[in-house]
Design the sequence.
């Protein structure tokens, strides 16, 4: 796969990014689309790791560049990667041939994106991000956004997402 379709969800902490991505996953699944997600761990440090006494984590702890374990239709992968940012994870996610990769966080990346706003101040700080296609806001104040939908209007958000999917934009070259 040389390209993959990417839609990013950006906003500040507790703005509803995870909730929105879950809504988008359900909407995509209802259309028969396969999604993958990539998330920025914005809590500092490394993400929580599984029990260090499992064999795969022992391998990783001993310095393996990658350690994977499979069972019950699930593959768990731990990988050391010097390159930062979402692109290495998008490349990995693309291996399962998704129709769409949803990215949470990584605000400054140039992907087409939905921004979540809690206040007018959020918009002032986020309005210059690259690739904004939709602002989802509590106040409906996001002057200059290409399109604005109120946070509680889930049906309008799903409608926008359906139109975006049909629009055929958002492809990223791997």
Sequence:
């Amino acid at each position: 796969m040389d390209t993959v379709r990417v839609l990013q969800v950006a906003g500040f902490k507790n703005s509803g990014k995870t909730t929105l991505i879950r809504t988008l996953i359900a909407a995509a699944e209802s259309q028969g689309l396969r999604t993958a997600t990539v998330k920025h761990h914005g809590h500092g440090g490394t993400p929580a790791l599984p029990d260090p006494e499992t064999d795969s984590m022992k391998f990783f702890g001993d310095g393996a560049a990658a350690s994977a374990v499979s069972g019950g239709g699930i593959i768990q992968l731990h990988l050391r990667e010097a390159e930062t940012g979402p692109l290495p994870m998008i490349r990995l996610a693309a291996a399962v041939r998704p129709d769409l990769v949803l990215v949470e966080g990584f605000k400054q990346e140039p992907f087409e994106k939905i921004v979540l706003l809690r206040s007018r101040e959020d918009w002032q700080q986020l309005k210059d991000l690259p690739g904004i296609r939709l602002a989802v806001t509590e106040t409906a104040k996001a002057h200059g956004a290409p399109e604005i939908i109120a946070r509680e209007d889930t049906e309008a958000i799903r409608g926008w997402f359906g139109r975006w999917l049909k629009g055929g934009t958002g492809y990223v070259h791997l």
Notes: The CA atoms of residues 33 and 65 lie 32 Å apart. The longest strand covers residues 3-11.
